[in-house]
Amino acid sequence: MDILYFIFDNADRILGLTLDHIVLVGIAVGLAILTGVPIGIAITQNEQVAASVLYVASVMITIPSIALFGLMIPILSLIGHGIGAVPAIIAVLLYSQLPIIRNTYAAINNVDPNIREAARGLGMKPMERLWAVELPLAVPVIMAGVRTATVMNIGVMAIAAYIGAGGLGTLISRGISQTDPRQLVAGALAVSLLAIAADYGLLKIQKRLTPKGLTPGTNGAAHDHA
């Protein structure tokens, strides 16, 4: 009951930290989409380059977040941003690359060759085929990667509270340092609910962006790639 009372008494504060968390993750994943999708498209042209890029992205995601924050502090301190939102956003941006690049690469590679041939037969140039045919068909798989990256990094951003990034991790870190289970549980619960809500919301967007001609089974296949 103490935890419920704490949540009700601090609802405004928790809401404010939740909004901060959403902004931080949103900026990081948004930047990851702007970089990861073009990289995923580009590496479809060369299998060796694709293998190298995916390997580097795979290695990056295995680095513990605390270690990555520690590595960035002295580097970003040179420009006055060793702690705070900047290293947190960069870390989440890096962690988001693998699912987005991998899913984009897989989606473009798996477009039905017959559809590509039909587009060529209509006189479409490569860039026209990409924008008008391949990307629309690839959307479900790409969005599955975005969903994976978002849900995963909502948790990573909570850890970033230890370097002063703010967000819901503030409740968790204070709960630990002050031996206050109310803050700890409230923060953990809020992070979990936010991850569930984000996944559900992105699934709705994924379904809306999926071309009507695709079968319902496409979405399941997309999630398997994630």
Shape: elongated
Number of strands: 0
Runs with pLDDT <50, length 5+?
A: 215-226
Biggest sheet: strands, sense, closure?
Answer: none
**How many H/I helical runs?**
10
Integer average pLDDT: 88
- State Rg: 20 Å
Order of helices and strands: HHHHHHHHHH
> What structural class is derived from the secondary structure elements?
mainly alpha
Question: What proportion of the residues is helical, as a percent range?
Answer: over 70%
Beta-strand residue percentage: under 5%
Distance between the termini: 38 Å
Structure write-up:
By secondary structure, the chain is mainly alpha-helical. Helices cover 81% and strands 0% of the residues. It contains ten helices and no strands. Helix 4 packs across helix 5 (85-109) and helix 7 (126-159) packs across helix 10. The longest helix has 34 residues, at 126-159.
